[in-house]
Amino acid sequence: DIKMTQSPSSMYASLGERVTITCKASQDIKSYLSWYQQKPWKSPKTLIYYATSLADGVPSRFSGSGSGQDYSLTISSLESDDTATYYCLQHGESPLTFGAGTKLELK
Amino acid sequence: QVQLQQSGAELMKPGASVKISCKATGYTFSSYWIEWVKQRPGHGLEWIGEILPGSGSTNYNEKFKGKATFTADTSSNTAYMQLSSLTSEDSAVYYCAKETAYYFDYWGQGTTLTVSS
Predict the structure, then answer these.
(1) In angstroms, what separates the C-alpha of A107 from chain B's closest C-alpha?
(2) Chain A residues closer than 8 Å to B96 by CB
(3) Taking 90 as the threshold, does the pLDDT of residue B1 lie above it?
(4) Is the pLDDT of residue B43 over 90?
């Protein structure tokens, strides 16, 4: 199985700060990487697909980058509504595997 | 608009089976894979597997073979996941999601399963 190492596991950031979360795959996943935001007691919401494409309705302050094994999600200017847990998902090989999540809180 | 409506919370006894449903609206149900995901506190998200409703084709995470069984009814646009021989390890929130072009674009609201005697 492909292991997705996501970091950090948790972080605090200030309003307006630039935030970056990373995921490293144990092998090349050819950009089959998506990012999801989950708030407490809610289902995940899709943010980014195919590593860099913004899902419909997602604010432009979210962006994705990366290729091969290394990927990142960036929030250009943190807003209060962005406090949540973020997960990456690799779709390059079965079984699909998620990162362990990054809990993002306001400082 | 696309919606995935899951069945309600379940309280089951160890050893029993349960069937969770996921009713899809707003798109051609038969043409897109339905994914199933497990979430337990402290265990993150786990992919259980998927079904393509139009053909009935399935793919399972090896870890869940023998535990989960997927079916789909195209007449009612509903996908099902049956979990058998329940233990406390199966207590979790289960999500269905629609897959498109190598990502999950819509998610159900989740079904909470509690296994307790």
Answers:
(1) 23
(2) none
(3) yes
(4) no
